[in-house]
Amino acid sequence: MRKIIINGANGFVASNFINELLAQNYKVVALVRNSSKYSATKRMNNALDNITNGRYSGSSNLQVYSYSLLDNNFSMTESQLSNIFSGDVDYYHFAASLKYDLKSKDEIFETNIGGIKNSLKIFTENSTQNSRFFFISTAYSCGNIRGVFKEKFYNPAEISEFRNYYEQSKRFAENIVKNEMTKNNIYAHILRLSQVVGDSKSGVTKTDYGIFDFAKRIHGLAYKYPNQTVRVQVDPDSTQNLIPVNTVVRYLLRTVEVQKLPVIMNFVAKNSIKNIHIINSLCELLPINISPVESIDKKEMNAMERIISVGMSFTGGYIKTNIRFDTQNLDKIVLSGGHDVDEHTIFKMLEFFINGLTDKRNSKMLQPAC
Prior knowledge:
Largest sheet: 7 strands, parallel
Structural class: alpha/beta
Strand content: 15-25%
Strand order of the largest sheet: 3-2-1-4-5-7-12
Radius of gyration: 21 Å
Order of helices and strands: EHEHEHEHEEHEEHEEEHEEHEHEHH
CATH superfamily of the largest domain: NAD(P)-binding Rossmann-like Domain
Helix content: 40-55%
CATH topology of the largest domain: Rossmann fold
Number of helices: 11
Shape: globular
Number of domains: 2
CATH architecture of the largest domain: 3-Layer(aba) Sandwich
């Protein structure tokens, strides 16, 4: 078995991937930043403990290293790098800034472009000839494309071609990988993930991005101002491409198992979910009535509607999407159809997520005042 190296290893998708790799008896090297509160090892263990609901008990197949993404040699010693890259490895670059706005542009580009450059440099200098490099990109590097987003490289473009700087940075990073493949003749692959949600079988949801960030904001308002009707600027018939984390992990495992892979694969759901179903689910789960409208004059918004509008600065860019994705390359390595979400599974995920928020809220209310 190849050794699997993963940076940004304590993230949502990466930690789920690692948990399954360990279950399959792979040797995993996890690269994690120290924080002001916790060591890299503690952060990794916390992530695994969280996604397994406290069942993670450690593994001798997991090595955790503290690293710094942008520093020379990741701030590691030659001995550490030699140990990490011994033998043929599969290296998965998950590390990324998930920010998106103009104010954070420098940080986004430094992390998402500078980070991939440094990872590639360290990989090419230390890995064996048969090792492979996997860049975890986003299916939304498609930007504002019309038509089908194909599993091929697209040229860098100006910000006007994208919804935000995060998408643009990922497009740039993909092309950096492409150039490195030509320059140093490395084996590299681009894996583009759409919006990753919870587990489609259990409904367990341990992420608060995308639709769950929206649900969190609505939850807070629903309990502060119950039984109100609010208008939200959403096209009810537009769709969200939501891929369950268990399906993503299954696809990632196939990239480990299959030696000859397509260069680019779109890790996306075959079927999308309409916005109106997400809204109806929230209305059923929370004491609030959400009325989707395609356009609202800000001058006509009430206080709650303005709060929601401000909170949708990111998700608002995705409420009118009906993107179609090519999956011919993905289909070549997937043994059978993955588990897509449907209206029932999305309701289960939202229910799990909202119940967790409610439990936290009630717990805080019961705490004695100091």
